[in-house]
UniProtKB/TrEMBL annotation:
Keywords annotated in UniProt: Membrane, Transmembrane, Transmembrane helix
Name of the protein described by the UniProt record: Protein Asterix
Domain of life: Eukaryota
Keyword flag Transmembrane helix: yes
Protein family per UniProt: Belongs to the Asterix family.
Cellular localization per UniProt: Membrane
InterPro entries in UniProt: ASTER
Organism whose genome encodes this protein: Linnemannia schmuckeri
UniProt GO molecular function: protein folding chaperone
Entry keyword Transmembrane helix: yes
Length: 105
């Protein structure tokens, strides 16, 4: 048998739990911003409005969840919103122009 001093249940061998400190730099990347850019680019390339609307929703979510220190690899969330809304406008613009000029598409 081991001597009683080596007993791991003894009160003097208790180590207090200290949670690790998480830095802002260690956070996960902006996944919503990435999905917004991918959906907007795909929707712009294949002219899919559903993908464009999904990209716009994710861009707004990325903007609302940004931190003050966000600089990110993908640019600012405001630029993502601008890109997704302009791609929506580019997709709907032929129909808007046709409605005002009287030409049927």
């Amino acid at each position: 048998m081991a001597p009683p001093a080596a007993d791991p249940r003894s009160p003097d061998s208790i180590v207090d739990y200290k949670p690790e400190v998480k830095r802002v730099e260690d956070d996960d990347p902006d996944v919503a911003g990435f999905i917004a850019l991918v959906c907007s680019i795909v929707g712009l390339m294949i002219r899919n409005r559903t993908s464009l609307w999904i990209g716009t929703v994710f861009a707004v979510e990325s903007f609302l969840n940004q931190r003050a220190s966000d600089g990110g690899l993908l640019g600012s969330p405001a630029a993502t919103i601008l890109f997704s809304t302009l791609s929506l406008l580019m997709n709907y613009l032929p129909e808007i122009a046709a409605a005002y000029s009287g030409v049927k598409i």
